Amino acid sequence: xxxxxxxxxxxxxxxxxxxxxxxxxxxxEIAKFIAIIAVILFVVSLVVGxxxxxxxxx
Length: 58
Prior knowledge:
- InterPro entries: DUF1328.
- This protein has helices spanning 2-18, 21-52.
- By secondary structure, the protein is mostly helical.
């Protein structure tokens, strides 16, 4: 998921350099949204994994 955020961030940078303000802003917002979702999912997986723990070894 971070890969998509980085791709949209690079698109935003290239669009900003070329002077496409609307595309740049939209790409940056998409990258920011995807990065936030990735962080939230990572934290949720850490919490759930910590609560489950490991099962007993037999």
